[in-house]
Design brief:
This protein has one helix and 14 strands. It is α+β, with helices and mostly antiparallel strands. Strand 8 and strand 9 form a beta hairpin.
């Protein structure tokens, strides 16, 4: 007998409403399990491809990108066919001179000229950047190792941290101009902490 519900007896039924024999019931359960396994395998492959080629989760260490990003933030980075653009927050590989991955902002790309004026503001190709995202302007002591203005070489970018006076970036010789091949991708989303989830610009 099937289970009782609202005074009625029911058993597993086929598409025509007929009760299925025990053998058919087992086949039905087995087929459902196989379908679930296929779905799980397919989902695992999709996740592997997604994280292998398209996106990468990272954690911010340090405060060089404050106030935009803070220590411990968990981020999603877009990798696939990424081409650096002015203003993009990016993740750099550990091959940038400090032997660790860095998060910085692209200030200028190949062929552009970077200058730092007398008030510590950044000028690119003669245009003063409007940088509402920075902590403060550059202090004279942190102008770095370049004789400004400087032109970004072919295949490279010039990056700065938003926390200008507490960031080792393209101003300093260990990092200097960053080869585009050392850019892992663009920071697109903060996923933790929960109260700060959102798109990063």
């Amino acid at each position: 007998m099937g289970q009782q519900q609202n005074g009625l007896s029911y058993e597993e039924m086929d598409e025509e409403g007929m009760a299925l024999p025990d053998g058919e019931k087992k086949k039905s359960v087995r087929a459902e399990v196989i379908e679930w396994m296929k779905a799980i395998v397919a989902a695992s492959v999709i996740v592997a491809v997604l994280f292998g080629f398209f996106i990468k989760p990272v954690e911010v260490i340090g405060s060089s990108m404050s106030p935009t990003l803070t220590n411990g933030d968990r981020l999603i980075v877009w990798k696939f066919l990424y081409e650096p653009k002015n203003g993009d927050p990016v993740i750099l590989s550990e091959n940038t001179g400090l032997d660790e991955a860095l998060v910085k902002r692209v200030i200028a790309v190949a062929g552009q000229t970077v200058d730092i004026d007398g008030e510590g503001r950044v000028v690119v190709d003669g245009e003063l950047l409007e940088e509402g995202y920075i902590m403060e302007t550059i202090a004279p002591s942190t102008r770095g190792d370049h004789d400004y203005p400087v032109t970004v070489p072919e295949g490279c970018v010039f990056v700065l941290g938003d926390n200008r006076n507490h960031s080792t970036d393209s101003r300093f010789e260990p990092v200097s101009f960053v080869d585009k091949d050392e850019i892992i991708g663009k920071v697109v989303l903060r996923i933790l902490p929960m109260d700060s989830i959102g798109i990063i610009r």
